[in-house]
Amino acid sequence: xxxxxxxxxxxxxxxxxxxxxxxxxxxxxxxxxxxxxxxxxxxxxxxxxxxxxxxxxxxxxxxxxxxxxxxxxxxxxxxxxxxxxxxxxxxxxxxxxxxxxxxxxxxxxxxxxxxxxxxxxxxxxxxxxxxxxxxxxxxxxxxxxxxxxxxxxxxxxxxxxxxxxxxxxxxxxxxxxxxxxxxxxxxxxxxxxxxxxxxxxxxxxxxxxxxxxxxxxxxxxxxxxxxxxxxxxxxxxxxxxxxxxxxxxxxxxxxxxxxxxxxxxxxxxxxxxxxxxxxxxxxxxxxxxxxxxxxxxxxxxxx
Length: 303
Description:
The protein is of the alpha/beta class and 303 residues long. 34% of the residues lie in helices and 14% in strands. The chain is built from eleven helices and eleven strands. The strands form two sheets. An eight-stranded mixed β-sheet has the order 4-11-5-10-9-6-8-7, with helices on both faces. Strands 1-2-3 form a three-stranded antiparallel β-sheet, with no helix packed on it. Residues 1-28, 262-272 and 276-291 have low confidence and may be disordered.
């Protein structure tokens, strides 16, 4: 998840600078990142109402038998290893996306959905939690991004001092930047704003964008926690949460940081989409596993 583990900033590849904490350059008496975050008292906040189920099952999908659907999943090496999922959407049209999403798909030159999209889209559009296990380059970003944009456009507009609606956490700044490029590609036509926040870049521009208001924040957790501690942004409006390459976040020792961020999002739903590129040894957040059982999809021969 985060660029921070064992006192080092992996977003930068070196020690955290004392300027990030306003203290001296040594470690004596230094607080750990996130120590100033406190559990939110949600009783004191008025949360916005929101919708989360936008999935309309296409007639071609409804008419497909369970046996034919199982065969389609097997042909694409898709296995539902935990929970339940709607029938697969084998074409872009069957996903029942709005026209602005279909137009952006056509402009991108995609010929057909990838396996993670075939099964991931109906799950995400239905507002259900999901863990999708697939290899790098499998189309995971569009699997969570396009349903996320549908989700965003159905919510009340952001108001002053609102945080984002969609939060994507990534383990490295390189991955975060790649995700933002896809957001720019597919979100331009719908006017959805985004910002990428990570260590090793000036805070000023990132902070200004957060204060101005953006619907999507793509972040490495260390820099995001920094902004939360300073009051630059908040996660009260987050109703669509993604942990990309969640297994790498665990490997970097970030389970506690991911839970801290998760517990600061809207408690009435906290939708969750985890997308590891390999098998998960444990859930990214104990708070998630204690409350819900996500649909778990495995794509191909991921080892």
